[in-house]
């Protein structure tokens, strides 16, 4: 029989605007216990915006943890109470790429670092694109640039090591399979089973709404 990894105790170690750190004590096989640290996250969405010419919108953004500007997909955190995944994706596509889409589907759901973090990301495919006004950006996004890249060239950048963001790699490769007719995306109604809940539920219980980052 499969072992039941019961949480015996949980301790919150750190709380910050976009994440938290907790330590869980688990019942392990062999009648022993062990502790595991978990980085809590709100979860996120990302968008492969594919135009009629077979190009996708890639953004280049400074990421301090990598100390580099990385090629990425338009993306954002699920940090607003009551906003579903698709609404967040629509907002982020406008804010980061100045685009809206008439056709949406789901390419992939990712658990980005399951060894220590509960972050899960839903990657959308957006088609039937049109330009819309992009709101004024701030912080790293004020330095962000956007480029239309042929999907085959985007794949080549992955293999050349020029696109290293894991979410972008997943989106590019799955979108290429759909574009080639070898795969079908899922409908936007497909359940997002691993969307994180711990951080969001604790912030909402503390009255930190609607923007759960605002500690």
Automatic annotation (TrEMBL):
A Pfam family assignment: NUDIX
Signal peptide extent: none
Stated name of the protein: ADP-ribose pyrophosphatase
GO terms under cellular component: cytosol
Domain of life: Bacteria
Transmembrane helix among keywords: no
Keyword check for Hydrolase: yes
Record GO terms (molecular function): hydrolase activity
InterPro entries to which the protein is assigned, alphabetical: NUDIX_hydrolase-like_dom_sf, NUDIX_hydrolase_dom
GO biological process, one term: nucleoside phosphate metabolic process
Annotated keywords: Hydrolase
CDD domains: NUDIX_ADPRase_Rv1700
Residue span(s) of domain Nudix hydrolase: 40-171
């Amino acid at each position: 029989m499969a072992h039941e990894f019961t949480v015996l105790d949980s301790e919150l170690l750190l709380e910050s605007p976009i994440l938290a750190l907790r330590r869980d004590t688990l019942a392990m096989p062999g009648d022993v216990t062990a502790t595991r640290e978990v980085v809590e996250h709100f979860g996120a969405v990302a968008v492969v915006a594919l135009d009629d010419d077979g190009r996708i919108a890639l953004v280049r953004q400074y990421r301090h943890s990598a100390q580099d500007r990385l090629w990425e997909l338009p993306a954002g955190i699920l940090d607003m109470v009551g906003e579903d995944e698709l609404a967040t994706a629509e907002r982020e596509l406008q804010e980061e790429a100045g685009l809206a889409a008439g056709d949406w589907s789901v390419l992939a759901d990712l658990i980005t670092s399951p060894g220590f973090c509960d972050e899960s990301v839903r990657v959308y495919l957006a088609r039937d694109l049109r330009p819309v006004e992009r709101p004024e950006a701030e912080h790293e996004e004020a330095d962000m640039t956007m480029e239309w890249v042929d999907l085959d060239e985007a794949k080549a950048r992955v293999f050349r090591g020029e696109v290293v963001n894991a979410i972008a790699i997943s989106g590019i490769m799955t979108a290429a399979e759909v574009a080639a007719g070898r795969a079908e995306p899922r409908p936007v109604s497909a359940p997002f089973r691993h969307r994180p809940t711990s951080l969001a539920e604790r912030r909402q219980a503390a009255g930190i709404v609607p923007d759960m980052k605002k500690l």
